[in-house]
């Protein structure tokens, strides 16, 4: 059954009166894996933050699981991995501790973790291929492994919806493959995914829809566009700026 998971209707968001999203409508239903694409600064992160209630809409509405955001209380159903959090920076916590934090919304802070919590943490660690690093300080992990730790933290909460902002940016190939495997398992289990990505890489087969944000509007909503021209070249780093007159660069930054 395809039930509504994310419904944005005529969403408008600006910062300091400067519009970023001008009129965005988006509907994601159960089991979909949607990639949010668009040039650097087009508003992908802003859209994600608006969906999660982290920035206010000046017009329009957001619903999660069919409930208007202001009345939505089931945050344990949502796992969020923000952009470039840097889990390890100065934090002495072990990988297991960071992942276990993903259970807090489910169990409450005052109740000690039980067997179900421990099982969910173990499952999340093994899903991202970090079971053997569980006892290590996060700071000793590579950037890709730290990113996987954050994904495991989101998975440990056993969400129905995963929202990920550039989960594979700057992540090594091994970690990208591990992440793709974990995401595949999550989707097979009935999960719904919205993710921002510049390079789909090993995620490509999992994505069933692409939404391209351009100049505050949805410029494309449908099949995943093929990388075009020089963007398809291996090793292309996707960091160069694009001029305002260029055509909608579906894969540009
Ligand atoms: N907190 C903020 N205050 C003011 N302006 C902001 C804020 N966050 C983002 N912006 C601006 O809003 C625009 C959209 O930013 P956003 O991060 O949503 O884009 P993006 O598509 O996710 O970009 P990127 O690919 O670089 O992550 C940019 O011009 C950015 O500078």
Number of strands: 10
Going by helix content, strand content and strand pairing, the class is alpha/beta
N to C succession of SSEs:
EEEHEEEHHHHEHEEE
CATH superfamily caption:
P-loop containing nucleotide triphosphate hydrolases
CATH fold-level label: Rossmann fold
If helices are DSSP runs of H or I spanning 4 or more residues, what is the number of helices?
Answer: 6
The CATH level-2 architecture is identified as: 3-Layer(aba) Sandwich
Major beta sheet summary: 6 strands, mixed
Low-confidence stretches: 230-253
**What share of the residues does DSSP label as strand, in percent?**
15-25%
Instruction: Tell me the Rg in angstroms.
Output: 18 Å
Write out the distinct hetero groups bound to the structure.
adenosine-5'-triphosphate
Q: Mean pLDDT, nearest integer?
A: 85
What is the topology, as strand order, of the major beta sheet?
A: 6-7-8-3-9-10
Q: What is the 3D shape?
A: globular
CATH class: Alpha Beta
Number of domains: 1
**Distance N terminus to C terminus?**
36 Å
Helix content: 10-25%
Secondary-structure blueprint of this entry?
Layout: E1 4-15, E2 18-29, E3 33-37, H1 44-51, E4 59-64, E5 67-68, E6 78-81, H2 95-100, H3 104-107, H4 115-127, H5 143-156, E7 161-165, H6 173-188, E8 192-196, E9 209-214, E10 217-222
Parallel strand pairs: 3-8, 3-9, 6-7, 7-8
Antiparallel strand pairs: 1-2, 1-4, 4-5, 9-10
Helix pairs in contact: 4-5, 5-6
The structure holds adenosine-5'-triphosphate.
């Amino acid at each position: 059954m395809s039930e509504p998971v994310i419904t944005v209707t005529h969403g408008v968001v600006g910062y300091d009166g400067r519009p970023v999203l001008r009129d965005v409508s988006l509907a994601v239903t159960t089991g979909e894996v949607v990639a949010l694409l668009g040039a650097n600064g087009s508003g992908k992160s802003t859209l994600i933050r608006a969906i999660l209630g982290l920035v206010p809409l000046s017009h329009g509405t957001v619903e999660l699981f069919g409930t208007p955001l202001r009345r939505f209380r089931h945050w344990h159903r949502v796992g969020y991995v923000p952009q470039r959090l840097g889990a390890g920076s100065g934090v002495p916590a072990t990988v297991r501790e960071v992942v276990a934090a993903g259970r807090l919304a489910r169990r409450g802070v005052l109740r000690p973790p039980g067997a179900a919590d421990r099982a969910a943490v173990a499952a999340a660690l093994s899903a991202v291929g970090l079971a053997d690093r569980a006892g290590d300080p996060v700071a000793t992990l590579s950037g890709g492994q730290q990113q996987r730790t954050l994904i495991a933290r989101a998975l440990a909460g056993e969400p129905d919806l995963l929202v990920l902002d550039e989960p594979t940016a700057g992540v090594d190939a091994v970690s990208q493959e591990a992440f793709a495997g974990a995401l595949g398992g999550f989707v097979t289990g009935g999960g719904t995914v919205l993710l921002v990505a510049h390079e789909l890489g090993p995620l490509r087969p999992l994505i069933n829809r692409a939404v391209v944000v351009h100049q505050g509007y949805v410029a494309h909503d449908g099949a995943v566009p093929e990388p075009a021209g020089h963007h398809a070249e291996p090793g292309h780093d996707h960091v160069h700026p694009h001029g305002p007159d260029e055509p909608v660069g579906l894969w540009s930054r």
